[in-house]
């Protein structure tokens, strides 16, 4: 069976997108910046970006302050955006922006559409706000390279016994549709009445002698995170048979707390614009004692539940609030990046909704 993967290019929007770069630069450095841009434009064309024009304001050299170079590009549609975006971290692109950052005072990239393409006023999601009352732990389980159905089945058989842990309310083991994009082979969610109950469960023989050894035997690594909720909402708390998406983010070093808070607000505003997000929860990641992450600790867990896969791979991916607004926090080319490019995007089938419990 072929596993589904996000493919917004399969359902592109028809509206062309203007990409506008704003470079604040001293006039003496303008020739070098344009030279760099000429080289960048060659690779950009291969990514689907068509150079439209370059303009300067004010149209003169100032002795004691920078001027602004405006560069405009065209993209065919939202599908074209993601095609170009997928190659943002190619070595030549990374080097270009490093060279630019060493030269300019500031830079910013924004995306423009025709005025008649402005979407409706966002929905009021305040009535959907909820405060989860249970303690939940979520883990991404990474099996060794080359692991197949037999290895996954062996691990799943043992982990099914997590439902027997003392005091546990639910243990949900979900095979991810794709063990890629930073995702593990499984998403494992454990729901306890409270954090103290979870600690008691981990002292049980079932945990120490059966479950933890199974992780050590079958997994190359795993992340284990508790959820410190920042915000959550539920349009359809009893959703059945949908898709759960789990995203894990790390911030770049030195992000200002006010900027971090703005990132969280923008993320939590997504359901107001994207109705296919039926339930949602943004949490600070609490690294647990049984964590075995291969790399730097995670900072955020962003979860959503959808009625079907198209809600994620189409509606979520092609909405301007995602690609033209929130994605700036993730994009090296935006001038506003705060999230490390090594993230986790896991999505799996959902038996019954649980993320806001």
From TrEMBL:
A Pfam match: Dabb
Domain Stress-response A/B barrel: residue ranges: 243-347
PROSITE patterns the UniProt entry points to: S_R_A_B_BARREL
Listed InterPro entries: Dabb (IPR013097), Dimeric_a/b-barrel (IPR011008)
Protein name per the record: Stress-response A/B barrel domain-containing protein
